Automatic annotation (TrEMBL), chain A:
InterPro entries: Anti-sigma_ant (IPR003658), STAS_dom (IPR002645), STAS_dom_sf (IPR036513). It comes from Streptomyces lavendofoliae. PANTHER family: ANTI-SIGMA FACTOR ANTAGONIST, ANTI-SIGMA FACTOR ANTAGONIST TM_1081-RELATED-RELATED. This is Anti-sigma factor antagonist. Residues 3-111 form the STAS domain. It holds the Pfam family STAS. SUPFAM superfamilies: SpoIIaa-like (SSF52091).
From TrEMBL, chain B:
One of its GO terms (biological process) is glycogen catabolic process. NCBIfam families: glgX_debranch (TIGR02100). Belongs to the glycosyl hydrolase 13 family. It comes from the Bacteria. Residues 173-583 form the Glycosyl hydrolase family 13 catalytic domain. The keyword Transit peptide applies. Gene3D superfamilies: Glycosidases, Golgi alpha-mannosidase II, Immunoglobulins. The lineage of its organism: Bacteria, Bacillati, Actinomycetota, Actinomycetes, Kitasatosporales. This is Glycogen operon protein GlgX homolog. One of its GO terms (molecular function) is isoamylase activity.
Length: 113, 725
């Protein structure tokens, strides 16, 4: 089982769309795939529209990526969170750490303004 | 080489398996720490049993009815009486594990091994099986309470212990589920840690700086066989004083329990409470376990080492000092380690600030039940480095008649729930004769009980989860526990309550006014007494349990906090908030030293002076129902000059004209609160209290209390006074 990772550039912004479940079996591989996108000053949108579930290990992976971004003055925004993922991240306090946007289009639009 | 280059990249030598058991790659594990610990490449399992003849690790895929594998511990994986094994290649999020111990079954010698059972790990950090509160389980599950491995790398941010001095605490006793389960709570996830977290602004506004949570260690809310005789509804074990697993937070209290994220959710609650300046004290139950007596379920301890964990009679029966079937063998060296390890775990991993020990008198009993003069467990907890700054609060009695209020072995560290405070204040306020002297002693921090230990050893309370709520204390003469299914035979009978003229809800304005006043009187005494006040959640809004004084089994509106009362009883809420703010503002109320009745500051006034209807003439006679005291502001805690505070309580049905002690020149008495008047007249904003109309006297109504502050008269106030018609 894997999480599919699709990345593209929109101007200065890297958009990474994930697809699948982020859990203990997929999170290790996902972390290895995500970290290279986090570079000094980079601006990354992580699109979770295709993610149905993020487990405890999955939340930790996202947090590690976020912490790396902080170290490098990069910016990560999570978008496309399902109601369930939002609920879990909110209840466990993980949501507090992240910058959250609605979806890719509205974030790109905001950046263009 | 700069520090950031020093990342450890070398792999560990022990990150490789040496054996293969039941298809799993394993190696001899490390005996410490006990329980399941993630290590590079795998999980280390360690379990103690002194008397077992063989031990297996039993692995399940999450939720599966049958084990995926059983891995017997080879002889060489055993150190002393500890079995340890590292298993590689496990998917920890989908793993549940337990142990199977074989050994003798000979109850007379204390052995009750049963190799048919899969046993839960006593050190399990996470337990599944009751993930969603109240959901009907598979009662035939071969393994009902399943140990799991936890991700313990929570991000605490900059969370630091608050270390609020004990005497500055205002404790708020609440139930995780009951606080927000009511439909009126308006939170996203009612009845959960996350729900409580959403209500932090309410707690801040109320002014409490410590929440004491009823048990949050994993328990089984469905272990109550009774039903409500009237409605036929299932009764629960709602309070949770029946621990299944001591290291695991209750999954059913987590909105995310079904995903196994209760540890994160609870930690997030603690972090946010700390951020709001609120400490967290856990109510912990080390006196017994959910295994009950010989007829109870074998969950863990009984099957691992019955004779170690339980106090047994010479012929192997369970001692029952807890009233619940068994008694944890707290002063056995192995069990001491267990209890200490458990508390350290909650402090180190969950940043818990203190503990309230249920039926703590049991913790000083020897394995044969004899109370010990110097119980090693209590001493160990008192001096433990990890627990050094935590609050240790004893419920200093047990169910077998050991009553230690005032003389619980304390090592200068332990505080106590002061049951005598509760009773004395209740009896005085309801108007019993002969209580004036004792009320004075209790308001002074119970020096008769805590001489040498200081007033902070006294946790003062009038109501707690166990007993009437404040509203019911002034609305019922008798308990009404029929809904508990025991014919009203359960619950305490000595409630010292008074219904103010009518049993239960009343439409009479006179009765309602009197009740409001009585509740305010009780709160006014509580929050101006020396010691540590504890408020029962909901009392600030007049929560009722319809006269039920033992709602341990009531998972319904009887127990839940009805948030509609915040508006409906705004009067009482505002009054309580004001009192709490007053306490925080006046260090003179928070002295740890008991009053000596002398002037040690050269202020012209003793630290505390006692008064009656006539100033300086307290009346301790049997018929006297008026107590007044003045606390001299120059004697305030820490030497910070404070206002003088005068409190007078009249439990008499007649009014009294109180002569007030004269203040130094240039100072005058100002009115902070009078329970006889409704808001906004009954209480005045801090620092803007108005001057009394008659400077030397105060007319105290029947069943009323007044709180005055004595301080310099400001020029504006003096002018206003002159200009007043």
């Amino acid at each position: 089982m894997t999480v599919k990772v699709n990345s593209r550039s929109e101007g200065d912004i890297t958009v990474i769309a994930l697809d699948g479940e982020i859990n203990s079996t997929t999170s290790g591989g996902l972390q290895a795939q995500l970290l290279p996108f986090i570079r000094q000053g980079s601006d990354v949108l992580v699109d979770l529209t295709g993610v149905s579930y993020v487990s405890s290990a999955g939340l930790r992976t996202l947090l590690i990526v976020h912490r790396r971004a902080q170290q490098l003055n990069a910016r990560i925004t999570l978008v496309g969170l399902s109601e369930e993922v939002t609920f879990v991240m909110n209840a466990t306090g993980f949501l507090d750490f992240f910058r959250i946007g609605e979806d890719v289009d509205s974030e790109l639009e905001r950046a263009a303004r | 080489m700069s520090p950031q280059d020093l990342t450890e990249t070398r792999e560990r030598v022990d990150a490789y398996p040496t054996h293969r058991i039941a298809g799993y790659r394993v190696r001899a594990g490390r005996p410490f720490p006990y329980g399941a610990t993630p290590v590079p490449g795998g999980v280390n399992f360690s379990v103690y049993s002194d008397r077992a003849t063989s031990m297996s690790l039993v692995l399940f895929e999450r939720g599966a009815p049958e084990p995926a594998a059983e891995l017997p511990f080879p002889a060489e994986f055993r150190t002393g009486s500890v079995y340890a094994m590292t298993v590689f290649g496990l998917d920890v999020e989908n793993l549940e594990y337990g142990f199977r111990a074989d050994g003798p079954f000979d109850p007379v010698t204390g052995d009750r091994f049963d190799a048919r059972r899969v046993l839960s790990d006593p050190y399990a950090r996470l337990v599944s099986g009751r993930d969603v509160w109240g959901r009907e389980p598979d009662w035939n599950d071969v393994y009902p309470y399943r140990a799991q491995v936890v991700n313990d790398d929570f991000d605490w941010g900059d969370d630091t212990p608050l270390r609020i001095p004990t005497e500055d605490l205002v404790i708020y006793e609440t139930h995780v589920r009951g606080f927000t389960r009511h439909p009126s709570s308006g939170v996203t996830a009612p009845g959960t840690y996350a729900g409580l977290r959403e209500k932090i602004p309410y707690l801040r506004e109320l002014g409490v700086n410590c929440v004491e949570l009823l048990p949050v260690f994993e328990f089984d809310e469905l272990d109550n066989p009774r039903t409500n005789p009237v409605t036929g509804e299932r009764l629960h074990n709602y309070w949770g004083y029946n621990t299944v697993s001591f290291f695991a937070p209750k999954a059913g209290y987590a909105a995310t329990g079904r995903f196994g994220m209760q540890a994160d959710e609870f930690k997030s609650l603690v972090r946010e409470l700390h951020r709001a300046g609120i400490e967290v004290v856990l109510d912990v139950v080390f006196n017994h376990t959910a295994e009950g007596n010989e007829y109870g379920p074998t969950i863990s301890f009984r099957g691992l080492d019955n004779a170690t964990y339980y106090m047994l009679t010479p012929d192997g029966q369970y001692y029952n000092f807890s009233g619940t079937g068994n008694t944890v063998n707290c002063n056995h060296p192995v069990v001491r380690d267990f209890v200490l390890g458990c508390l350290r775990h909650w402090v180190a991993e969950y940043h818990i600030d203190g503990f309230r020990f249920d039926l703590a008198a049991i913790l000083d009993r020897a394995p044969d039940g004899t109370p010990l003069p110097n119980p090693p467990l209590l001493e160990q907890l008192a001096y433990d480095p990890i627990l050094r700054h935590t609050k240790l609060i004893a419920e200093a009695w047990d169910a077998a008649g050991l009553y230690q209020v005032g003389h619980f072995p304390n090592y200068g560290r332990w505080s106590e729930w002061n049951g005598k405070y509760r009773d004395a204040v209740r009896r005085f306020v309801k108007g019993e004769p002969g209580m004036a002297g004792e009320l004075a002693t209790r308001m002074a921090g119970s020096p008769d009980l805590y001489q040498g230990r200081g007033a902070a050893a006294s946790v003062n309370f009038i109501t707690a989860h166990d007993g009437f709520t404040l509203n019911d204390l002034v609305s019922y003469n008798d308990k009404h526990n029929e809904a508990n299914g025991e014919g009203n035979g359960d619950g305490a009978n000595d409630n010292y309550s008074w219904n103010c003229g009518e049993e239960g809800p009343s439409a009479s304005p006179h009765v309602r006014d009197l009740r409001m006043r009585q509740m305010k009187n009780l709160l006014a005494i509580l929050l101006t007494s020396q010691g540590v006040p504890m408020i029962l959640a909901g009392d600030e809004v007049g929560r009722t349990q319809l006269g039920n004084n033992n709602t341990y089994c009531q998972d319904n509106e009887l127990s839940w906090f009805d948030w509609g009362l915040v508006e409906a009883n705004a009067e009482l809420l505002e009054f309580t908030r004001g009192l709490i703010a007053f306490r925080h503002a006046h260090p003179v109320l928070r002295n740890t030293e008991h009053p000596r009745g002398v002037d040690s500051m050269g202020s012209g006034y003793p630290d505390v002076s006692w008064h009656g209807v006539r100033a300086w003439h307290p009346d301790w006679a049997d018929h006297c129902r008026v107590v007044a005291l003045m606390r001299c502001g120059r004697h305030a805690k820490g030497g910070v000059p404070d206002d003088h505070v005068y409190v007078a309580v009249n439990a008499h049905w007649e009014p009294h004209d109180m002569e007030l002690p004269q203040l130094p020149d240039g100072q005058a008495w100002h009115l902070f609160a009078d329970t006889g008047a409704l808001m906004p007249y009954g209480m005045h904003p801090l620092g803007r209290e108005p001057l009394l109309e008659h400077p030397g006297r105060y007319h105290l109504g029947p069943h009323s209390a007044v709180i005055l502050v004595g301080r310099a008269v400001s020029t504006t106030q003096a002018t206003q006074k002159e200009m007043a018609p």
